[in-house]
Specification:
heterodimer, A: 355 residues, alpha/beta, Rossmann fold, 2 domains, ten-stranded mixed β-sheet, three-stranded mixed β-sheet, 9 helices, 15 strands, B: 546 residues, mainly alpha, two-stranded antiparallel sheet, two-stranded parallel sheet, 23 helices
Chain lengths: 355, 546
């Protein structure tokens, strides 16, 4: 009832016995309650105002997560640093089963998958799935090769095997048309599309590259296997293993080209893979990294595996493009930073022919 | 009382077709599928409603003297309408159903007497026939502006280009905090929900469409109008309804009114959808009736019944009158010359009007495109956007490629597969010719335009900075973008060698990948204009293409 009396323009009927004409007043109790109510609201508003006033700051981006992703396993002297498996020259056209045989051989020479992957590991495999191209066009990693790695990881009991990449072209087209989505899924992998909402701002700790959004599966892995394909590249000369790390980043990657060599080294210094397996089954000799024309493709029937990403890139550049490390400044920069060696001749390289 | 079940059956039918329409609209997106083939095609009958649409078919036939791929299916709707009347509007049309639904909501402004009055026939219901006549005459003269008012075009634009992207945005906003949660269970739930929805109804890439707010608001205004006046759109504007109304004059099924038992209680008018005077004492208006059967269900005296071969006084044709007919004819005759006097199709064309791959030359394109937005809905890169002024007033809401938002994906031809009228003629990825095994010496690739450099903004040209991302992305081989090493001097006076990009117009297909990838994203230093587009013999640069 007292609430009705609060409406000043609607005075309550005069109480019984009140003199006619006398203004009606609240009784003491209601008046006190009213003052308390109004005072409470005023105090709360004032308090909130001063509290918000004190909070006012110029917005700054939150500090990126600091992370260096070292997934390497300890070196073992009984195994070579680099293993190359190839079919004999003149073994004819591409045949199904050949990429599988090659990776089995190269990986076996390196100590087998058991040397790198443990039971219950979350393994992320990073093929190149950047372009809307089919396997024959050699712009993406060979799907059979991806499937074989997935299968081996599952065999040694990896908890999860994730295959993913942050594509350049429309991702679903790239994943589908590269053949990798179907092949990897059939071999038992989770194929993860680059969901734009699943990137986290990370401090890459590089000379050029500081804070960049990184696709979260790459941040939450126990082991990472880099699975690049060897291709020509207009700016860099070649795109090999280290350049494949562009595909973990989101954001405006096109800016990386302005300092491509330093960017490559910064990324390689951030992401140290368990293993790198280079797809040289088909390589793209010209018009890379997109290609598209079968005349740009050379069938090499070779797969290389290694634990030194720098040596592997140097080896492939020399083998197929006759590029020495001095032609690829990023290799020397990476070596200087202690990420590996460019002097692959001094390493134990095991070359085997598969028949 | 046998007939009183009919409104119930009608509601089942309406619900079914509305859900089917929405399902097909949601499926109008790239779905690679799990087939062995690398090719990605449109799966499922996503164009179905357009193929069944007699307005699209008849205007397409008037403008092109032929019927495009599958439009002959519209006979499935047209033929029964000749015999049975506008059952399509009352039982099938999803736009009608939505208005029916909204119009059934309780409203202060539409109760009792007002509601009965609002459902009596009004002369303004003939506006739709004027619209139809004008639109069909314009089609005869080669302009498909009538398509803008097709109910399915309206729905795809409103729901597909405005509401669904908004729903997508809202749902993602709810899921993203879950996906980034530090609590494992919540995170897993968010991840599964997100993946599951992305595989079904959500997009991996959030789509944005220019003018979506216009499409959304127009749609809301139309629905709001149907709250005030039952089926305002169907009764007064819809040219498809007008077409079906006009052909239903021969219909053998009609409303039988038993005058002896009718006491003019007006109950039949309470839920009448068409405004066709089902009440006794006045003639029934055949062309307005949507065959919703509500009057039969609501008549307490069972005086109303739909019967075949009845012989009764009725108004079979729209009461258009000579004046309104002439208005429609005159508007149709005048429309095309006036629109084209404003725009012109030659040199005055907008340089950024880049039509999707497979599009016909502009005059043929405009004689086919019904602005349905299917191509924009399906484009996986969100590249196709509705025009505002780029195609002139006549070409409002026709598709244009906006490379800054998305380029044309080399192997993709989905827009040409969903186009119901052949404005974007169906092509294969091989005919598009941007990938291996496509263009040969005898067949040139489809070209959308040509890329040009803005050397005042390009990093290697203007700022002594290495870049050529454009060259990396160029999808043709040999690449249309080539580089030349140049000596430049930076601001410190230091000499530098870097690669400067150039375009070979004989190789460029105008896909816009370079423009999309350019780091100067808000105004790229390389951009595509329509010159050199293969569809237009008059819009070429080179004397001969290599």
């Amino acid at each position: 009832m007292p609430d009705q009396n609060l409406h000043a323009n609607k005075p309550a009927p005069a109480p019984q016995g009140a003199t006619v004409g006398e203004p009606s007043l609240l009784n003491r109790r209601d008046a006190l309650l009213q003052i308390l109510r109004v005072g409470g609201v005023a105090a709360a508003a004032t308090g909130a105002g001063f509290w918000l006033d004190a909070r006012s700051r110029r917005p700054v981006p939150s500090a990126p997560e600091v992370a260096r992703r070292d997934h390497r396993v300890s070196a073992a002297s009984e195994w070579p640093t680099l293993a190359v498996a190839h079919f004999a020259a003149g073994s004819g056209d591409a045949k199904a089963g050949e990429p599988r045989a090659l990776v089995q051989k190269a990986l076996g020479d390196l100590g087998g998958i058991e040397r790198f992957i443990r039971r219950q590991d979350v393994v992320v495999i990073k093929p190149n799935i950047a372009w809307d191209r089919t396997p024959e066009q050699a712009a993406n990693t060979n799907p059979e090769l991806v499937a074989e790695i997935v299968r081996q990881c599952r065999e040694v009991g990896a908890k999860r095997v994730i295959v993913t990449d942050v594509s350049c072209n429309e991702a679903r087209r790239c994943f589908h048309r590269s053949g990798i989505e179907a092949a990897a899924r059939e071999a038992g992998a989770e194929v993860v599309l680059p969901d734009p909402d699943l990137f986290r701002e990370v401090d890459l700790g590089g000379v050029m590259l500081k804070s960049w959004p990184v696709f979260t599966p790459f941040l939450e892995a126990d082991k990472i296997i880099n699975l690049p394909i060897a291709k020509h590249h207009g700016l860099c000369g070649v795109t090999l293993g280290m350049k494949n790390w562009y595909g973990i980043l989101g954001g405006q990657r096109s800016r990386l080209h302005q300092q491509i060599h330093q960017s490559l080294v910064d990324l390689a210094g951030f992401m140290l893979p368990t293993l790198t397996i280079m797809d040289c089954y088909r390589i793209l000799l010209r018009n890379g990294p997109t290609g598209g024309n079968l005349e740009d493709v050379a069938l090499k029937k070779t797969v290389m595996a290694g634990t030194d990403p720098v040596a592997l890139d140097a080896y492939v550049a020399k083998a197929y493009w006759n590029l020495d490390p001095e032609h690829l400044p990023y290799l020397q920069l990476a070596a200087n930073r202690g990420l590996g060696t460019v002097e692959f001749e001094k390493l134990a390289v095991k070359v085997s022919q598969v028949s | 009382m046998a007939h009183s079940r009919l409104p119930h059956y009608r509601r089942v039918s309406q619900t079914f077709f509305l859900l089917l329409f929405l399902a097909l609209l949601i499926l109008t997106t790239m779905r690679p599928g799990s087939t062995g083939s690398a090719d990605i095609h449109m799966r499922g009958p996503v164009r179905m409603f357009f193929l069944l649409d007699p307005l699209v078919a008849i205007s397409n036939a008037l403008a092109t003297h032929a019927l495009y791929r599958g439009l002959v299916l519209s006979l499935v709707i047209l033929m029964p309408t000749i015999f049975l009347g506008r059952f399509f509007c009352g039982w099938i049309c999803p736009m009608g159903t939505l208005q029916h639904l909204v119009g059934s909501l309780k409203s202060e402004a539409k109760r009792g007497k007002q509601r009965i009055e609002s459902n009596r026939y009004k002369r303004w219901q003939t506006i739709k026939y004027v619209v139809l006549i004008a639109g069909l005459i314009a089609a005869v003269f080669g302009s498909m502006v009538i398509g803008t008012l097709d109910p399915f075009s309206l729905l795809v634009r409103s729901i597909g280009l405005a509401l669904l992207p908004a729903v997508n945005l809202g749902t993602r906003a709810l899921l993203v905090p879950l996906e980034h949660s530090h609590v494992h269970v919540i995170k897993m739930f968010g991840a599964y929900a997100s993946t599951g929805l992305q595989r079904t109804v959500l997009d991996l890439r959030q789509a944005h469409f220019n003018q979506a707010i216009v499409f959304g608001l127009l749609f809301l205004v139309i629905l709001w109008a149907s709250m005030r006046v039952t089926r305002f759109w169907c009764r007064s504007i819809c040219p498809l309804g007008a077409l079906l109304g006009a052909v239903s004059r021969w219909s053998i099924l009609g409303l039988h009114k038993d005058a002896s038992s009718c006491d003019k209680c007006n109950r039949c008018l309470l839920d009448c959808q068409g405004g066709d005077d089902p009440i006794g004492g006045v003639p029934w208006r055949k062309s307005e009736c949507l065959m919703c059967m509500n009057c039969v269900g609501s008549c307490p005296h069972e005086s109303l019944e739909f019967r075949f071969f009845r012989r009764e006084h009725e108004v079979a044709s729209p009461d258009l009158g000579r004046r309104r007919t002439v208005t429609g004819l005159a508007a149709g005759v005048a429309a095309v010359p006036i629109l084209r006097a404003n725009t012109g199709l030659g040199k005055s064309r907008h340089e950024r009007l880049i039509r999707p791959p497979g599009s016909l030359d502009e005059p043929d394109f405009l004689s086919r495109c019904i602005r349905c937005g299917e191509c924009m809905k399906v484009c996986p890169n969100n590249s196709l956007q509705p025009t505002l002024t780029e195609a002139g007033m006549e070409g409002l809401w026709t598709p244009t490629l906006v490379p800054k938002i998305g380029y044309c994906e080399p192997s993709c031809v989905l827009c040409s597969e969903v186009c119901p009228t052949g404005a974007i003629w169906q092509i294969t990825s091989k005919e598009k010719g941007w990938v291996a095994g496509g263009a040969t010496q005898n067949s040139q690739p489809v070209r959308l335009g040509t890329a040009f450099y803005d050397r005042g903004r390009c990093l290697p040209w203007a700022m002594a900075t290495e870049c050529i991302v454009c060259e990396e992305w160029c999808p043709v081989s040999p690449k249309a973008i080539y580089v030349e090493e140049a000596q430049v001097v930076d601001s410190a006076g230091k000499a530098k060698t870097l690669k400067q990009p150039r375009v070979d117009p004989s190789r460029c297909v105008g896909c816009g990948a370079c423009e999309y990838a350019c780091p100067l994203q808000e105004r790229p230093a390389v951009y595509v204009t329509s010159i050199g587009e293969s569809r237009s013999p008059s819009s070429q640069i080179l004397l001969k293409r290599s």
